[in-house]
Specification:
alpha+beta, Alpha-D-Glucose-1,6-Bisphosphate, Chain A, domain 4, seven-stranded antiparallel sheet, globular
């Protein structure tokens, strides 16, 4: 007797969300790195896979709270909105897609002082995308948190 699976249409296997974490030292103060990273509108300048960022809402402190992004894909682009939360006391930026989004993206960047001219960046990223794309696949195979941190470090090098 054949099982029900033999007659089921092809369904792509479930792929769990990808979580990656990385830490690195940066040659800038923790507060300086925090301020540069917290400027979401600048992300397309230092992260090549992001085409643009548009602020939808700002908080009482003037920082972006909701930002619409468009990212590059192999054959097109993908749009998503992130909600940001900032903790200046711990120099931490936290973000997540809106609950209704079919793109799931959450993360955290924390900057820990090492000296007045250096800090440790702790970066965590969780991604669950609704698309399969060669560019995304290559990016995910290369540990996406490391990719983002490397691009951010290079951006800081150009700034300093």
């Amino acid at each position: 007797m054949a099982t029900a699976l033999a007659y089921a249409p092809h369904v792509a296997p479930y792929v769990a969300p990808l979580t990656s974490e990385v830490s690195t030292t940066l040659p800038i103060s923790a507060s300086g790195a925090y301020e540069v990273f917290a400027d979401a509108t600048e992300i397309p300048r230092w992260l090549p896979i992001v085409q643009n960022a548009r602020i939808l809402a700002r908080g009482g402190d003037g920082r972006p709270e909701r930002v619409a992004f468009t990212r590059t894909l192999e054959r097109g682009s993908l749009g998503y909105t992130l909600e940001y939360h900032y903790d200046p006391a711990t120099l931490t930026v936290v973000w997540a897609t809106t609950p209704s989004s079919n793109v799931v993206l959450t993360g955290e960047a924390r900057f820990v002082p090492l000296s007045h001219r250096a800090c440790m960046m702790l970066y965590r990223l969780m991604i669950d995308l609704p698309v399969v794309d060669d560019l995304v696949t290559r990016e995910l195979d290369k540990h996406p948190a490391s990719h983002v941190v490397s691009e951010f470090r290079e951006h800081l090098r150009r700034l300093c």
